[in-house]
Amino acid sequence: MNHLRSRVYRALTAPRVRDERGDVPGWVLVTVMTAGLVMAIWGVAQGQLTSMLSSALGSVK
């Protein structure tokens, strides 16, 4: 039983080998989808967003 416990402990605390490249296609997809959402929202609510921004900047002055 101690042998099994020792193996489990070593497996859980051993340093992990990681690939540092990341998930490039996943990040590209997230970036493209985010840009698409921003463009869609901006197209629908451009007037309201512009007035909100102008109002917010005007209140700072």
Short description:
Keywords: Membrane, Transmembrane, Transmembrane helix. With 61 residues, the chain is an all-alpha fold.
Descriptive account of the structure:
- By secondary structure, the chain is mostly helical.
- It has one domain.
- It contains 2 helices and no strands.
- The chain has helices spanning 2-13, 24-60.
- It is elongated.
Topology:
Elements: H1 2-13, H2 24-60
Q: What coarse outline follows from CA principal-axis ratios?
A: elongated
How many angstroms does the end-to-end distance come to? 72 Å
Task: Let me know the average pLDDT.
Answer: 87
Helix residue percentage? over 70%
Order of helices and strands: HH
How many strand units?
0
Bin the strand percentage. under 5%
Domains, number: 1
Structural features:
61 residues, mainly alpha, 2 helices, 0% strand
